[in-house]
Amino acid sequence: MAPQPTSGRRLLVVERAYRGSVETQFADVLYLARELNRQQGGLDILLRGLAVTFATAADDDAPARTVRIGRIDLDTLPDPRASLRTLLAEGAGVWAEETDLAGLGTAPDRLLPGVRRARPDSRPDWSAYQGVHFL
Question: Alpha-carbon distance 26 to 76, whole Å?
């Protein structure tokens, strides 16, 4: 597959799935990606390591995203799948590293629509980007 033109775009590589949901509830890594996409005129994201779980479809019966701290129920935690859906709708390209998906036992049909599997023959070409940033 021929590389897509990436003139002026940046590639963000995200490898860590969570860095503390409570601490990052208002500005997680994908929130930052959305802002960079908006301000920099486009970007693509390569998910690696445990971050590939961001790109998997959630079960319909998934528990509510809340945590109890003392007497307070905190329900403003980040939702990485919703953030990825928004990024895709805003024109960002999203890849999930195939070897990491396989290592976690993720079936091919479990990826969010629009997310591509990063295979050796269909990975983003890092040299074609204006910049590559690890978040």
Answer: 8
Tens digit of each residue's pLDDT (9 = 90 or more) over 102-130? 998 877 678 999 999 999 888 899 999 99
β-strand pairing of 72-74 with 67-69: antiparallel
**Nearest 5 degrees, angle CA 86-CA 7-CA 117?**
50
Residues whose CB falls within 8 Å of the CB of residue 45, separated by 6 or more in sequence, listed in order: 11, 12, 13, 14, 33, 84, 87, 92, 93, 94, 95
Mean pLDDT of the chain: 82
Contact present, 119 and 100 (Cβ < 8 Å) = no
